[in-house]
Amino acid sequence: MESETLRAIREHATADYPREACGLIVVVKGRERYVPCRNVAVGSEHFVLPAADYAAAEDMGEVIAVVHSHPDFPAEASQADLVACEASGLPWHILSWPADDLRTIEPSGYEAPLVGRRFAHGVLDCYSLVRDWYRRERGIDLKDFSRRDDWWKSGEDLYMQHYGEAGFAVVSQDLPEQVGDVILMQLRSEVVNHAGIYIGNGQMLHHVHGRLSTRDVYGGYWQEITRCVLRYRG
To answer: Domain NlpC/P60 spans what residues (predicted)?
Structure first.
């Protein structure tokens, strides 16, 4: 990384502190350039770089790396960083600020564990867990859907709108029977906003915001908030 690029990254981290700063390194006419982008994430736990900002950077030249800061936190990559780095296919530079420690990660085949992963909306959330389980256990790549932070709070009903596009059909209102059945739940919300995968023996795999992904006995509270059960039809 060129010294001018690093200087620009530091300036951006300072300007956006205490929120995470994010941007892209682009080669423009043979020269490296740092392009600051917006962080449109709700809260300060992670960053969301808008697709429009990425597209604008691509119009300038070739995107060669993703950059973001870790305010008041070590530059060590989180699980979400490692997963998103794999998805991007690019190196990621992480700057701890104001500690000014820069570390780089690159795609290496990392996969987050199904149990014990940390929540990061849009990267490691309940639907990401459903997609990962289907890819690893069934060899099926489910369609992903764009989802902004706290979409359910504005009344968006994404699960109910899109389950058909992902290849699922409703088979029950509240009782999963086959391994792989997806349980849709309404968790402290006006719309369905949570999903789990039935893994047999009365258990489901799911990931609640603010907690690690886990296996839970399906019943009691979880059955009370269930709105329907889906089965993959392809």
So the answer is: 95-233
